[in-house]
Amino acid sequence: MLFRSILALARHIPDEARGMREGRWQRTIGTDLKGRTLGILGLGRLGTEVARIGQAFGMQVIAWSQNLTADVAARAGATHVGKSTLFSRADIVTVHLVLSQRTRGIVGAEDLAAMKPTAYLVNTARGPIVDEAALLTALRNRTIAGAGLDVYDQEPLPASHPLRTLDNVVLTPHLGYVTEDNYREMYSQALEDISAFRAGKPVRVLSAT
User: Fold this and answer.
1) What is the DSSP letter of 159?
2) CB-based contact 129:105 (threshold 8 Å)
């Protein structure tokens, strides 16, 4: 899902697809990913997988999170950098943090202002991690090239939301987890949980320790 958004932004796919239906032909010039810098916020399980895919595209990968170390980043094939460095260097910034009080609004106006005017922000984690008002301002003023969003402060995204009016945004309706395999696994585990609980032998028990 993430790299579909990245490719859609880099190659202007929504606009070109719309143009094909309207009888137009090849109006934009895309951006190659090879040699570009991918900045990953949050190098956990998903972030590490993103780093691997980014390397497969020939991208240079840099990463930051509050507890990330240089050794952990290196094992994922990424270079550990400071937060401000990540935003100023990356051609594409992608968010893979867990939403918490510590990460809510952690991507703010100052971070977006540090980005290149040719850079893109992609958020498939949770909407409130990015300051939505600051992002709208950056997109409207085109201080960044665009954004790919699958998550929002309010879901479903209201029909009148200003994000829906911008031509430099790729929007999807929180599709990141919506696959047959994921649904099959989630519902199967839910049935197992209920059956095990009723049998007095609960599984996948969460612990506070």
Assistant:
1) T
2) yes
Ranges of H-type helices in the chain: 2-10, 13-21, 45-56, 70-75, 83-89, 109-114, 132-141, 180-198
Helix, strand, coil percentages in the chain from 3-state DSSP, rounded to 5: 40, 15, 45
Contact 87, 93 (CB under 8 A): yes
**pTM for this prediction:** 0.90
pLDDT digit string (tens) for 36-66? 999 999 999 999 999 999 999 999 999 999 9
Q: Which two tokens stand for residue 119?
A: 């850079």
Cα–Cα distances (Å) from 154 to 102, 150, 158, 173, 174, in that order, read: 19, 12, 8, 11, 11
Condensed to tens digits (0 to 9), the pLDDT of residues 138-195 reads 999 999 999 999 999 999 999 999 999 999 999 999 998 888 887 888 889 988 999 9
Q: Point out the residues that are catalytic.
A: 126, 155, 174
Q: Is the peptide bond before 156 cis (omega within 30 degrees of 0)?
A: yes
What is the secondary structure of 92-109 as a DSSP string? EEEE-PPPSTTTTT-B-H
